[in-house]
């Protein structure tokens, strides 16, 4: 038995009859297992993102199997990720205010500035870079990389097809202006009419 069993002398003597604080490989627990930066709201957002990533992985696994039993198990696990995400979101919104994280305010000189560093075909404006709260800088000088701000990536035709498919799949609606989690957590901020 890896790590000793409840009926073994190892459990009785070394662990005082309680559970052995080890992982499934018998490695003792350490503080290295704690994944936190010490700011609960940032940790909760990290957990929410981790649950979202895990849900996507389960979706991908479901798509590559045709075994009904495996699909059922994966759907259950995927659904539990949704439940975990909801729990973390409820906990996050129970802490008010929860944005921005930490205690120090941002520098107002830069907090509402959008630098247009992605120019050319497909350059879009939307609620993420326009409106009364944004100071839009069309042509920041000089460009961060010393160039002209235009893309210069060369792709093979196969890579270009993949990028085009991804662009279609991930295309956003520039007219959408939803209330964000940051809005909800800022202590009552609402959308401007």
Provide the succession of SSEs.
HHHHEEHH
Biggest beta-sheet profile: 2 strands, parallel
Helix content: 40-55%
The radius of gyration computed from the alpha-carbon positions, rounded to a whole number of angstroms, is 24 Å
Counted by DSSP, the helix tally is 6
Strands in their spatial order, largest beta sheet: 1-2
- Rounded mean pLDDT is 83
Count of DSSP strands: 2
What coarse outline follows from CA principal-axis ratios?
extended
Assess the beta-strand content as a share of residues.
under 5%
Q: What class, by secondary structure content? A: mainly alpha
N-to-C span? 65 Å
- pLDDT < 50 stretches: 1-5
Count of spatially separate domains: 3
Keywords:
193 residues; mainly alpha; 3 domains; disordered N terminus
What does this protein structure show overall?
This is Mn-containing catalase. Residues 169-178 have a biased composition (Polar residues). Belongs to the manganese catalase family. It comes from marine sediment metagenome. Residues 184-193 have a biased composition (Gly residues). The protein is mainly α and 193 residues long. The protein has three domains: 1-34, no CATH class; 37-103; 105-150, no CATH class. 40% of the residues lie in helices and 3% in strands. The protein has six helices and two strands; from the N terminus they run H-H-H-H-E-E-H-H. The chain has helices at 9-14, 40-63, 68-94, 108-111, 157-169, 181-184; strands at 113-115, 135-137. Strands 1-2 form a two-stranded parallel sheet. Residues 1-5 have low confidence and may be disordered.
